[in-house]
From TrEMBL:
Organism: Parahaliea aestuarii
Domain of life the protein comes from: Bacteria
Protein name: Probable membrane transporter protein
Subcellular localization: Cell membrane
Transmembrane segments: 54-75, 82-101, 113-138, 150-172, 178-198, 205-226
Family in the record: Belongs to the 4-toluene sulfonate uptake permease (TSUP) (TC 2.A.102) family.
Origin organism lineage: Bacteria, Pseudomonadati, Pseudomonadota, Gammaproteobacteria, Cellvibrionales
Pfam families per the UniProt record, alphabetical: TauE (PF01925)
GO CC terms, sorted: plasma membrane
Alphabetical UniProt keywords: Cell membrane, Membrane, Transmembrane, Transmembrane helix, Transport
Length: 227
């Protein structure tokens, strides 16, 4: 998902992780995997989107991440799953209903700021910074390559912010490195496959694949939390 669309890994992985481990372990594992694979694949997206316009968004995202991390400790596993599921379903519906115009005004600085702040709160609380920034990227960039580069660059910094916040909050434990080592080979294999599929089919299936998978994950997670 991440390599094919530029987003979707945390949205898909955190709900699944939360079914088999405590929320605190799920968010640390997701952020760790995102950071590792983002650094390993840096050359595939770095420099394809200018960094300067992203700086205000990243600054507000950092503040939001600190706020979100403080909320995480107060969530039960069921509440965690429910809010994650609802966030993923909402993002999927927004992507389904919204179609960016090929011409006309694009979202400006205020939209970037709002997306960064909202993304930060979700990043700290759930390790899923995606929904607000994904909607912004789809609205601002009609070219899949630029949208993908914007998202992957943003999520690199988001993962750093999340891990720093979780470390300060004492959520990174001795189990965290072991879980990372167990999960990373599968993550890397999926990344290689997604990168190949993006260059082969990305321009035609970019949105459809992402929305379909995310909606399925969101509905499943929400139903499990309610049951």
């Amino acid at each position: 998902m991440r390599a094919f669309t530029g987003f979707g890994f945390a949205l898909a992985a955190v709900p699944v992780f939360s079914m088999i481990m405590p929320p605190t372990q799920a968010v640390v594992l997701s952020a760790s995997l995102t950071l590792a694979v983002s650094l390993l694949t840096l050359k595939t997206y770095w420099g394809q989107y200018p960094l300067r316009p992203m700086l205000p968004m990243l600054s507000l995202s950092l503040l939001g991440t600190l706020v979100g991390a403080s909320l995480l400790a107060g969530l039960s596993p069921a509440q965690f799953q429910l809010w994650i599921g609802l966030a993923v379903v909402s993002a999927s519906l927004a992507l389904t209903l919204y179609r960016p115009a090929q011409e006309g005004p694009r979202p400006g600085a205020r939209w970037r700021a709002a997306a960064g702040a909202a993304s930060g709160v979700l990043n700290g609380a759930f390790a899923i910074p995606g929904p607000p920034v994904v909607v912004y990227a789809v609205a601002a960039e009609s070219d899949p390559g630029r949208a993908r580069a914007l998202l992957m660059t943003f999520f690199l910094f988001s993962a750093v912010m999340a891990l720093a916040s979780y470390s300060l909050a004492g959520l990174v434990t001795v189990q965290s490195p072991l879980l990372f080592l167990l999960a990373f080979p599968a993550m890397l294999l999926g990344d290689r496959l997604g990168y190949y599929l993006f260059h082969r089919y990305g321009s035609r299936l970019y949105r459809q694949v992402a929305v379909a998978v995310l909606m399925a994950v969101g509905v499943t997670t929400t139903l499990q939390a309610l049951m």
